[in-house]
Design goal:
Elements: H1 10-49, E1 58-64, H2 70-77, H3 80-85, E2 89-95, H4 98-106, E3 112-115, H5 117-126, E4 132-141, E5 143-147, E6 161-164, H6 170-181, E7 195-198, H7 201-209, E8 215-219, H8 222-230, E9 233-237, E10 254-261, H9 262-267, H10 269-288, H11 291-306, H12 312-320, E11 322-324, H13 333-343, E12 355-356, H14 358-367, E13 379-380
Parallel strand pairs: 1-2, 1-3, 6-7, 6-8, 12-13
Antiparallel strand pairs: 3-10, 4-10, 4-11, 5-8, 5-9
């Protein structure tokens, strides 16, 4: 309310009051503007202070000398991975099985690796989700339980000795899970109704030939080598255990995937994307190249990685059992986790966050090479 004094009209008083209000508002506006400007300045300074991600000077990549790792084999032999990495130097290390590769990844000896899904799950669980991300699929199928000719059914396996590539590896877990479904008890120390002896693949072939093993659950080309070179027969083809209800792709199950150390990915996202470009190109090369040329390149790469090429019949049989794909088949992972828990090689845990398929889907979209792949609710896609 404005008070009017005798001899003075109300209008000047109102005018001075309005002027006062305007002055106060102007001061407040200036103050707010200063705060906003200061905030923008701080944000700009912070952005300027945080360097943009740069390509890594080196990418250390792991893989196995198995046909199920053919995207790595041909990607290296054909120079596809190195070309896509540009100025980033590519170095490699080969492994026999997943747990050893995971140990190297967690120790910083490698930055990314081709690997089976179960060791990746185990690492993610043990680290509370901090160690690795699955960034692509590589191969589906290509694993079998091969046994002596006189073994005709699961009932014949009691008291027998079987091999797997390494304790806690993907084939090791698959073998233990299948034996459990047949009513057998197995233990990680090798005891139980059926003894499981984790053995390097090359040694498995020799031990089987010498009659010291009754069978083995193996990836290609080792399953084919035991069949064609050691007289084994297939008791279980793992593709028959996957009806497609989890993935929409009957007979397909993840045998090889591509994972990356999460700290490396956070520091060098463009390098990871470049790796994925090369990986997707390698998978496309495998699917599009005529058989004779493909087999020649793979054999040359196996000679480099494993020290020996494959016989033509082994290579041909092996390739018939494998599907090369960038889809990691994420919908199968709850079952893979369950199998690992029941086998005693993995702890029960939430694996949400295991997948980061965003960069892969960007590569797929940019190259127009197929449909985007799904994380099945277990991460980002």
């Amino acid at each position: 309310m404005i008070r009017i004094v005798a001899g003075e009209s109300a209008a000047p008083r109102r005018k001075r009051a309005v002027e006062a209000f305007l002055a106060i508002g102007l001061v407040l506006l200036i103050a707010v503007g200063a705060v906003v400007a200061s905030s923008i300045s701080r944000n700009t300074d912070a952005q300027a202070a945080a360097p943009a991600p740069t390509p890594a000077a080196e990418l250390k990549l792991g893989y196995f000398g198995n046909l199920t790792h053919a995207p790595a084999l041909v990607g290296l032999k054909q120079g596809i991975l190195a070309r896509n990495l540009g100025t980033t130097r590519l170095s490699t290390e080969t492994f026999n099985a997943g747990p050893a590769a995971i140990e190297a990844l967690n120790a910083g000896a490698i930055d990314a690796t081709y690997i089976g899904p179960n060791p990746a799950i185990n690492s993610f669980v043990k680290s509370g989700g901090e160690s690795v991300n699955v960034i692509a699929g590589a191969a589906a199928g290509g694993a079998q339980l091969v046994v002596k000719p006189e073994i005709n059914s699961a009932a014949d396996l009691r008291g027998k000795t079987l091999a797997s590539p390494q304790l806690g590896g993907t084939q090791d877990v698959a073998l233990r899970a299948w034996l459990g479904s047949q009513g057998y008890k197995t233990n990680v120390d090798g005891s139980g109704d059926v003894a499981i002896n984790p053995t390097e693949n090359a040694q498995t072939l020799k031990l089987f030939q010498d009659g010291k093993l009754d069978g083995a659950w193996l990836p290609e080309p080792w399953a084919s080598r035991l069949v064609l070179q050691a007289g084994a027969k297939v008791l279980v083809d793992e593709k028959d255990l996957w009806d497609g209800s989890a993935s929409g792709k009957p007979g397909e199950f993840p045998t090889t995937i591509l994972i990356v150390n999460k700290n490396f990915a956070a520091a060098h996202p463009e390098t990871v994307k470049a790796l994925l470009k090369g990986h997707a190109e390698s998978v496309a090369w495998l699917n599009d190249t005529p058989a004779a040329e493909k087999q020649a390149v793979i054999n040359a790469a196996l000679q480099d990685a494993a020290g020996a090429a494959l016989a033509a019949d082994v290579l041909d049989r092996s390739l018939q059992n494998i599907v090369f794909t960038v889809d990691p088949l994420a919908g199968t992972y709850p079952k893979l986790l369950k199998d690992g828990v029941e086998a005693g090689t993995t702890k029960q845990a939430d694996i949400t966050g295991l997948f980061d398929l965003r960069a892969l889907n960007e590569v797929i979209a940019a190259g127009k090479t197929g449909q985007p792949v799904s994380a099945a609710g277990l991460g980002q896609d």
